[in-house]
Design a protein that fits this description.
- The structure is a homodimer of 231-residue chains.
- The first copy, chain A, is α+β, with helices and mostly antiparallel strands and 231 residues long.
- The first copy, chain A, has 2 domains: 137 residues, Nucleoside Triphosphate Pyrophosphohydrolase, CATH 3.90.79; 65 residues, Winged helix-like DNA-binding domain superfamily/Winged helix DNA-binding domain (Arc Repressor Mutant, subunit A), CATH 1.10.10.
- Helix content of chain A is 28%, strand content 28%.
- The longest helix of chain A is centred in the middle third of the chain and has 15 residues.
- Chains A and B meet through β1, α1, β5 and β6 of A and β1, α1, β5 and β6 of B.
């Protein structure tokens, strides 16, 4: 072996699976790419890691450049290194995810010319994505699903004040099944981590529902000490 | 953007954290490197990913070449991509772990000239390791610790028939604390996943203890349905 690195023609990229919950729907962030040969392809926000940046910094920079979002807490979840996953050569990609409170009203604005636009799309009806991005999304989504009962995912995705219907919609979206309304409420209220507020929804056309917030200390305790929430 | 990959001078490697439990001690597999400029350095088994192999295949090949072990179920757990983590240039490494039943009697035999030897070393008394391998080990060890109560780790590390003392030693090694013997046994037996055998240890100089094996179905059920084991 020489005392230098082998010459291998490969590059790293990062790809971001950003989950947001808006109007009762679980969504992820997509971009429409703008450069040949991938013009108009829909993809997860992702790009190449530069020579002189750590992969964590690259993930934050690239997400910002392609969508305008910054200051997210992103966590690495898997590295995809199959041969031929990218048509231009050997690209190994490190995938990150984040969960954020979102709103369709908040504007997404790519800084980089590589993205024509960035937008939220419901997870249940994803279009065909570039490269192996569908697989990357699915791996991230299944990770979220496994963590739903042991990590404060609902806290990260819901607004500070929320209704029990919103909470149930979130669980239903992540687990992709319906829960009985009465049982779900009974069980969730039984944990003691929901604090009923002296407030109701505003500006709704139906009968306004009560608002709740998480008692975060108690929520964390249920998630960790008691082995999680099972529905 | 050109329709080809950017020219970035970087390579991938894989590093393996292989946990084994032998004679009441939790150990990991280390190699002594054989090539300049790293001659005599102690390191995790790891090396560069070739141009034409997936990272999963690379991990299996490299572990085999450096230690002679094969057919392990290795799982990726984190990718380390800090700048300057490797003295020869930009190397991003994907770390894998595996848990195996081991025995100091089983011979380790490097195939590759890059390893002078391979050996098991107790996790509690690790020497200084090459590069950021101490950090990689610690990340893998903390992942094992978090999974101890939710994944069949004890099943993978213990021999098929084991004593309650061995089981307690394993928990103590992973959690790095002592348990009260009576409470530990009462709790473990209470789960109902230990099957008492009509057999005792053989060839021991002290009073032979009863042997147990896992009722694997019941063990998996306790780990998943009931939210895990808490000590």
């Amino acid at each position: 072996m020489e005392s230098k690195l082998p010459s291998i023609d490969s590059v790293f990229s990062v790809d971001c699976v950003i989950f947001g919950f808006d109007a009762g729907e679980l969504k992820i962030l997509l971009i429409e790419r703008n450069e040949e040969p991938f013009k108009d392809w829909l993809a997860l926000p992702g790009y190449f890691v530069e020579q002189n940046e750590s992969i964590d910094n690259a993930a934050a920079r690239i997400l910002y450049e392609l969508t305008g979002l910054n200051d997210l807490h992103m966590e690495q979840f898997h590295t995809f290194g199959e041969l031929n996953r990218h048509p231009q050569g050997r690209v190994i990609t490190v995938a990150y995810y984040a969960l954020i409170r979102t709103s369709s009203k908040k504007e997404l604005r790519p800084i980089s010319q590589y993205a024509k636009k960035a937008f939220w799309h419901p997870v249940n009806d994803l279009p065909k994505l570039a490269f192996d991005h569908t697989k990357i999304f699915e791996t991230g989504f299944s990770k979220i699903r496994r963590r739903l009962n042991t990590q404060p995912i609902a806290f990260e995705l819901l607004p500070e004040k929320f209704t029990l219907t919103q909470l149930q919609s979130l669980y239903e979206a992540i687990e992709n099944r319906k829960f009985d309304k009465r049982n779900f409420r009974k069980k969730m209220l039984g944990f003691g981590f929901l604090k009923e507020l002296n407030e109701k929804e505003k500006d709704v056309s139906y009968r306004a529902a009560k608002l709740y917030r998480f008692d975060k200390r108690r929520y964390m305790k249920v998630l960790s000490d008691e082995g999680g929430i099972e529905n």
